[in-house]
Amino acid sequence: MAEEKTILLTQAAYDKLKEELDRRQGEYRDEITERIAAARAEGDLSENGGYQAAREEQGKNEGRINELIVKLRNSQILKAPKSGKVGNGSLVTLTIAGNDMVYVLGSRDLAVATEYDVISPESPIGAAILGAKEGDTVSYKAPNGKDISVTVKEAKPLK
């Protein structure tokens, strides 16, 4: 069995995932069950597209429920570093090729609780900026092999 990785989440992201899990285990599961029962009552299941679609949706929902259970079980609420230093949960303003861009550094699961794009700390750019301070210029190797310089203009905890 593969080792399960700790997922760092903000409290807001954790709450959103928990809310989704509760909805999927409750009202959405009940809604799918009702559609299956209604389609089953129509008769011949082999030719019943509504029944097949509802069963497929049920499988997808149960898969997502299992995924959410594992994520929440393996999650840890992150403590973002203080302003000025880049870490998991930092809201960073980066200057790349003369353009300022704002990102959150952390797992893609943070995206449920923020309107910002998320950079993984395992990505080349994420690994380069992790631990950097405001004003630092770091570089990383792009997939095309070019070195790209990035300046950390601002780093603050994601609220």
UniProtKB/TrEMBL annotation:
Residues 83-156 form the Transcription elongation factor GreA/GreB C-terminal domain. It comes from Bifidobacterium [indicum] DSM 20214 = LMG 11587. Keywords: DNA-binding, Elongation factor, Protein biosynthesis, Transcription, Transcription regulation. GO terms for molecular function: DNA binding; RNA polymerase binding; translation elongation factor activity. This is Transcription elongation factor GreA. PROSITE patterns: GREAB_1 (PS00829), GREAB_2 (PS00830). It comes from the Bacteria. One of its GO terms (biological process) is regulation of DNA-templated transcription elongation. Residues 7-77 form the Transcription elongation factor GreA/GreB N-terminal domain. Signal peptide: none annotated. Necessary for efficient RNA polymerase transcription elongation past template-encoded arresting sites. The arresting sites in DNA have the property of trapping a certain fraction of elongating RNA polymerases that pass through, resulting in locked ternary complexes. Cleavage of the nascent transcript by cleavage factors such as GreA or GreB allows the resumption of elongation from the new 3'terminus. GreA releases sequences of 2 to 3 nucleotides. The lineage of its organism: Bacteria, Bacillati, Actinomycetota, Actinomycetes, Bifidobacteriales. Pfam families: GreA_GreB (PF01272), GreA_GreB_N (PF03449). Belongs to the GreA/GreB family.
